[in-house]
Design goal:
The protein is of the alpha/beta class. The chain has one domain. Helix content is about 50%, strand content about 25%. The chain has four helices and five strands. Strands 1-4-3 form a three-stranded mixed beta sheet. Strands 2-5 form a two-stranded parallel ribbon. Strand 3 and strand 4 form a beta hairpin. The longest helix is centred in the N-terminal third of the chain and has 24 residues. Bound molecules: calcium ion (CA). The site of calcium ion has 7 residues, from strand 5. Calcium ion binds next to strand 5.
């Protein structure tokens, strides 16, 4: 009734299947890790006067020193099979444009001394 040779063959097949599964787990993982640098054209901006320009550029540099540049990370992971990491780093121009948009409160493309002062005050706050 019970064939010992058949039993051994089944055991061997099971062991082989297990080995294959382990091999697949070790090599079957797709892993990607990339960094994307984003950049956009620099916005054209006018200044009411030299003081407005000076205040704006100082505040903008101050903002960059404090690492206010945006950085986003995306991570998609399906355990064992798929692992994807993406890091988006925005360039200096994007940081500059963000500063312009934030500073030019009425959006007329011209930064007045008053707008520059308000922006500088906002940036100076911790
Ligand atoms: Ca303006």
């Amino acid at each position: 009734m019970h064939d010992p040779r058949r039993f051994v063959a089944t055991q061997c097949r099971l062991a082989a299947a297990l080995l294959l599964a382990v091999a697949a787990l070790n090599t079957g993982c797709i892993s990607t890790d990339r960094t994307v640098y984003r950049e956009e054209p620099r916005m054209k901006v006018e200044f009411e006067n030299d003081t407005a320009a000076r205040i704006f550029y100082e505040a903008e540099a101050n903002m960059r020193d404090r690492h206010e540049r945006t950085e986003s990370r995306t991570e998609v992971s399906i355990p064992v099979v798929f692992d994807h990491k993406e890091r988006v780093v925005t360039g200096d121009t994007i940081a500059f444009n963000q500063a312009v948009r934030r500073c030019d409160t009425n959006g007329d493309g011209r930064i007045t001394e008053q707008e520059a002062r308000i922006f500088a005050e906002q940036v100076a706050k911790p």
